[in-house]
Amino acid sequence: MKPTLFVLAAGMGSRYGGLKQLDGLGPNGETIMDYSIFDAIRGGFGKVVFVIRKDFEADFRTKILSKYENHIPVEVVFQSVDDLPEGFVRPEGRTKPWGTNHAVLMGKAVIREPFAVINADDFYGRDGFRVLGQWLSKADGENRYCMVGYRVGNTLSESGTVARGICRTDANNYLTGVVERTDIARVDGRITFTGDDGQPTTTDDNTPVSMNMWGFTPDYFRYSEEYFKEFLRANIDNPKAEYYIPLMVNKLITEGTATVEVLDTMAKWFGVTYAADRQGVVDKIRALVDAGEYPAKLF
Q1: What average pLDDT does the segment 237-263 reach?
Q2: Does the predicted TM-score (pTM) go above 0.85?
Q3: What is the distance of C-alpha 33 from the center of its chain?
Q4: Mean pLDDT of all residues in 219-247
Q5: What is the mean pLDDT of the chain?
Q6: Which residues, at least 6 apart from 250, have a Cβ–Cβ distance to it below 8 Å?
Q7: Which of 165, 214, 288, 298 is the most exposed place for a label (fewest CB within 10 A)?
Q8: Could you give the 3-state DSSP secondary structure of residue 47?
Q9: Of the candidates 205, 209, 177, which has an alpha carbon nearest to the alpha carbon of residue 190?
């Protein structure tokens, strides 16, 4: 059974100033998502599921989904701040979405096979989908997951500092934890971030970081449903609390419920964290097309 690609496309890009997901950056107006779908097809994925907000469904279907007809089966599910387990009600004034792992839960009804989770507005590169597709195509059983660990030196922005989930791994490349680090940048040739003491700390270029490219089997939905109730009991009145994927993954690892293998990739990540990043992304995509990595027109 071919794995499914689950694309998180429900968020607004507040720092970017618009719907990054629908921004045409390729030579024929391709979105970053288009490149992810193209790479996923090359990587052996058999279906794509998008999670979006209901209010831009019409735009999404017209500008995005229509392109994939006859290339790969697609489905759409919706994330709503009101979509809560029985017994819970959205607090008055809560407008912020419940986070990435809440978005993942929206795929439960349509995903029955091993699946990958990615952000819609991140360019992951062909090799990331290759290693993830290979791993998921052999996945069997439960409680064994994976993530693609990008080398931090391949994920920086030229327009400012970034935040990344720096991965801790054991001797066998299994994840032992993800620590969110901020203010990551290359300074005088070395990569630095703000440490626990508030001081600049250096790290190696090849340190693996999470770019939200995960591989799960369907049992992950069951754990996520159970823990979401715990999360809500503790946080429902906090208007900024979010149910993130690393929160769920860290819990499963800490309790010994599941393992997460960190897959290495040489792929260079890029994205539009800041509006100033946009032209750089356009130029990088053009360079990949010129080098023959992608056709000028994808679909």
Answers
A1: 94
A2: yes
A3: 11
A4: 94
A5: 91
A6: 177, 178
A7: 288
A8: strand
A9: 205
Structure tokens at 291: 């080098």
HEC per residue, the chain: CCCEEEEECCCCECCCCECHHHCCCCCCCCCHHHHHHHHHHHCCCCEEEEEECHHHHHHHHHHCHHHHCCCCCEEEEECCCCCCCCCCCCCCCCCCCCCHHHHHHCCCCCCCCCEEEEECCEECCHHHHHHHHHHHHCCCCCCEEEEEEEEHHHCCCCCCCEEEEEEEECCCCEEEEEEEEEEEEEECCEEEEECCCCCEEEECCCCEEEEEEEEECCHHHHHHHHHHHHHHHHHCCCCCCCCCHHHHHHHHHHCCCCEEEEEEECCCCEECCCHHHHHHHHHHHHHHHHCCCCCCCCC
- How far is 288 from 299, CA to CA, in rounded Å? 16
d(CA 128, CA 214): 11
Q: What is the pLDDT of residues 182-212, one digit of tens each?
A: 899 999 899 999 888 888 899 999 999 999 9
Residues 116 and 132: beta-carbon distance below 8 Å:
yes
Q: Which two tokens stand for residue 190?
A: 């070395």
Question: What is the residue type of 26?
Answer: G
What are 249's two structure tokens?
Answer: 């993954």
